[in-house]
Amino acid sequence: xxxxxxxxxxxxxxxxxxxxxxxxxxxxxxxxxxxxxxxxxxxxxxxxxxxxxxxxxxxxxxxxxxxxxxxxxxxxxxxxxxxxxxxxxxxxxxxxxxxxxxxxxxxxxxxxxxxxxxxxxxxxxxxxxxxxxxxxxxxxxxxxxxxxxxxxxxxxxxxxxxxxxxxxxxxxxxxxxxxxxxxxxxxxxxxxxxxxxxxxxxxxxxxxxxxxxxxxxxxxxxxxxxxxxxxxxxxxxxxxxxxxxxxxxxxx
Amino acid sequence: xxxxxxxxxxxxxxxxxxxxxxxxxxxxxxxxxxxxxxxxxxxxxxxxxxxxxxxxxxxxxxxxxxxxxxxxxxxxxxxxxxxxxxxxxxxxxxxxxxxxxxxxxxxxxxxxxxxxxxxxxxxxxxxxxxxxxxxxxxxxxxxxxxxxxxxxxxxxxxxxxxxxxxxxxxxxxxxxxxxxxxxxxxxxxxxxxxxxxxxxxxxxxxxxxxxxxxxxxxxxxxxxxxxxxxxxxxxxxxxxxxxxxxxxxxxxxxxxxxxxxxxxx
Lengths: 252, 265
Ligand SMILES: Nc1ncnc2c1ncn2[C@@H]1O[C@H](COP(=O)(O)OP(=O)(O)O)[C@@H](O)[C@H]1O
Ligand SMILES: [Mg+2]
Known about the structure:
heterodimer; A: 252 residues; mainly alpha; MetI-like fold; globular; B: 265 residues; alpha/beta; Rossmann fold; 2 domains; 6-stranded mixed beta sheet; 3-stranded antiparallel beta sheet; 8 helices; 22% strand; binds adenosine-5'-diphosphate; binds magnesium ion
């Protein structure tokens, strides 16, 4: 805890990259039409924040991600725990899960639009669907990896199925659940931007696509930058949640 | 001196118990034709070479899985009450529960109010010297302290039968002696039926009324040695008793060949 903090090192590499970019762009080594200097992008970003355009698109995407994330991960955790605990359920569902899991969910986006239209429902659905199997498999692996000793303790001390679910499987699989959730958050961002590129009238993906079409390259970069920032913030939020959910884990 | 309580009516009878585990090639016989009984309120120790099936036997008695052959008679669990409590060897606590929650774990499945749960758990934690650690998590404790938590968890349920699987094996000598004293005191106050697995000859003699010696795998009961030392058994008086030396020698004679045989397989 008291050792030297290397946190500042994490700032050096992105700043360095931006600096090199700035120089290359300003000296014309990199074509500033395609690689505008970061300072110009930041100015565009400030303008877009002031006009309310950027907060609007971020809000739209964020809402889709959050709703889709909850709708996808909550049932995934519950079913994953149940499949980890009950062998028959695993035998029954595993073939389906194994078959659907590797399909890139964005590939069935056209089908989803066909059924749900181009509105919010299709966006939320594609996010939920694309993270569901990931979280499910991680949760199940978390339960399966638990030492039998924990189940023995529970059973010897009177725990029924319900108590085993809440006092052994759920807390025991929590580290793996969070591994799944963190991966899922990345997937959610990728898929929502992708979906908004393909068919949408709002959101960060839409912003990027429209900016490209009207050749507002700076605005396009703003969209990319915001996507990166969202991913970074989501990681911080999940790390924080993880510590909150597992006070029992040794810190380092 | 503590008055010795009347024994609880909780006998254990094991008849012809065998256990076969599936193994990579065919199967593995862990127990073969094990028979013995423990009288109500008796303190019975089991010693045997490692791998001879002692843990398997206790797990069968605790009802974690059935025997492959034979029968066991043990007081059944009653709704809302834990009649038989097992103290595990090795991993003994749930790492995500605090010391207090671990100790309350059996009680939470019994008809016990949260307030009483806490009182009973804290009382037992005091007994094992861990009442200052109620809010700690297992990873913050030593292996021996975790083992003491699991002892407190068993005692908090006030069982009639205590199945103890090398409960003091990971404790330092001083704490082991203290906990042996505590266990003897508790047992004389309550007269539970105790089946106590240990690999320490000294511990078996100090604690029990009778020692069962098991063979190397597949485990059977090889010998039965009554321990007629006077109670209460003070550390000094036990060690100085000439009977102590004779018992030690007798147990080791029975055990020595089995340990040698277990080493060869
Ligand atoms: N679940 C299991 N599956 C297969 N073999 C097991 C299992 N549990 C124990 N064994 C084997 O049974 C034998 C007895 O184990 P155990 O009861 O733990 O012995 P002890 O407690 O006397 O050291 C050992 O050889 C062990 O490897
Ligand atoms: Mg053992």
